[in-house]
Amino acid sequence: MKRKLLGCVAALMLAAGLAQAQPFGPPPFPPPYPYPPPPPPPWMQYPPPRPYYPPPPPYPYAYGPMAPRYPYPPYAAPAPASAEPARTAEPPVAAAPKEAPAAAAVAGPAVADLVEQERGPCLRYWLTPEYLLWVANPGHTPPLVTTGPPGTPFAGSLGVPGTTTLFGGNINYPALSGLRLSLGGWIDPERKFAVEAQGFVLEQGVVNYSNAANLAGSPVLAVPYFNVSTGAPGQFTISNPNGPQGLFPGLATLGNVFVTSTSLLYGGEFNGYYNLFRTRGLSVDALGGFRYLGLQEALTMNTTGNIPFLGVTDTTSDRFATTNNFFGGQIGLKGTYQWKSLFVSGVIKCAVGVNNESVNVAGNTTIAGAGATSGTFAGGVLTQPSNIGQQIKNSFGVVPQAQLKIGYECTSYMRLFVGYDFLFWEGVARPGDQIDTNINPTQSHAAGGTGVLVGPTNPAPMFNRTNYFVQGFSAGIEFRY
Questions:
Q1: Which of 73, 100, 324, 376 could share a disulfide with 428, CB 3.0–4.6 Å?
Q2: Which whole-number Å values give the CA distances from 401 to 211, 249, 346, 352, 436, in the listed order?
Q3: Which residues, 6+ apart, have CB-to-CB distance to 280 below 8 Å?
Q4: How many other C-beta atoms are found inside a 10 Å radius of the C-beta of residue 336?
Q5: Domains and CATH numbers, the chain
Q6: Contact by Cβ (8 Å): 198, 180
Q7: pLDDT tens track for 40-85
Q8: What distance in Å separates the CA atoms of residue 207 and residue 136, rounded to the nearest whole number?
């Protein structure tokens, strides 16, 4: 009995020692089940646990380029258990930490790209040639060529009964064709800042007038003026059946007259644009920059007279020319609204700066024949040594302009349009306003004077200013890229 008890105690101690010597954890090999292990209870099978998905990024990422919406792969159902039990149980490998998405992907595309997303690629540059058809306001001159009834003394003088003005008053230029070219582009990806250069030129407007007498000296042609020496109206006779001044019946004076008036307008500007706001169809920009305008005009009158009974021929030339240059800064607004393929745009701007004005007066008289002192002398009829020369002055100038365009977008890269423009220029010098019709004939060889001034100094140099404007239509094509 005692031996059996000691044997049991020894067996228990041996079993405890063997148990203490075993490693902690599952056995290295699973028990050899003759069939697959039983599935877990139903409450442990469904629903399977799902990972956390963060919410999608806010606008405008949702409208930008497509990117993975979730930073983690979607849940995949576990593969069915193999019929053959695994031999080893390897410890799970820790997953590498996920990198945060790039800032650019979170931020999404630039705001400017959203504007063009529905209509095509982002277009940043433009080239716009335009055809212009503009009309300028008329110039003005005093009466330059008159006529009157033959046989009337001093026919053609203002105030004499029957005197009619043949040329003078308003000078209406025809519609003028021109070309305008614009080149510009946005200088930043968001299209907030842009620059544009623009220039235009109109064809030279020309108005001509001519008249000539027949061999009998008819019709009467004269250049009227006011004689400051006598204080009465006078005239320079070009042709008259009754001779100079109409005082020599039967001794005809033959002659002709040719008057030309020209006008040329051109300009350019360089502007910067800043986008104030832009929505799906509407865009408003502020502009500011530099503007230049140039206007060159001239009025020329040439006469030729022949006095057969004296054997004298005289030729006169009078020229009044003006040049105006404007230099200044300008500001304005530009708005564009687009609905599908149709668009309308408008620009209003105003430039303030300096007008540089030049008035140039020139003239001469050429006399040939045995009955007079031959030669070429300074001064014609309305130009004399007292007013011949050049004057240059500077004055304050304002140039506002308004534009309206309506067009159709053929493709994302080309648009057609028609438009209307109105341009106003304050304070310009025009040639017809520089004519002084008060004449002292003592210094005029054409009027029979000696060339030596006696009495009042007339004609006097004039420097008058007036307003100028042009308006008209345009048609063009805009290329964008």
A1: 324
A2: 40, 59, 11, 12, 33
A3: 115
A4: 16
A5: 124-480 (2.40.128.100)
A6: yes
A7: 666 666 566 555 556 665 544 444 444 444 444 555 555 555 545 5
A8: 13
